[in-house]
Specification:
Pfam families: Ribonuc_L-PSP. GO terms for molecular function: deaminase activity. The chain contains 2 helices and 8 strands, in the order E-E-E-E-E-H-E-H-E-E. By secondary structure, it is an alpha+beta fold. The strands form 2 sheets. It has a 6-stranded mixed sheet, with helices on one face. Strands 4-5 form a two-stranded antiparallel sheet. Helix 1 packs parallel to helix 2. It is globular. About 30% of the residues are buried.
Amino acid sequence: MIKRYGVEGGKGTGGQALPFAKAVEAGGWLYVSGQTPMVDGEIIDGGIIAQSTQAIQNCLDIMTEAGFGKEDIVHMKVFLSDARYFQSFNKVFKGFFAEHPPARVCCVADLVVDCMVEVDMTCYRADRR
């Protein structure tokens, strides 16, 4: 069975409706769509620390709504707009995941939203299969 969370999309920049689910659960797996440091359809002010914190928190909020916790995160993808943000992102990452660090990939990419970071997460719970 496949369950979709946030199918109504949520809001992107300028208040536009997003055409994808915030997360999809299938066979015990939860795939959280990429999250930027956005609140109410607007990118937050602040540097890489503030933006990283918000992007990760947005993923965690979606996971919590779906009934998953930090200990269920298996893998995370991180996209930074500048390689110089790597060390600062790692500090934020460690603050969130010191006890349950997931596997991770981090790369530099042009982001389609004018921000410094985007993250997504893949989670698993055997009891949800």
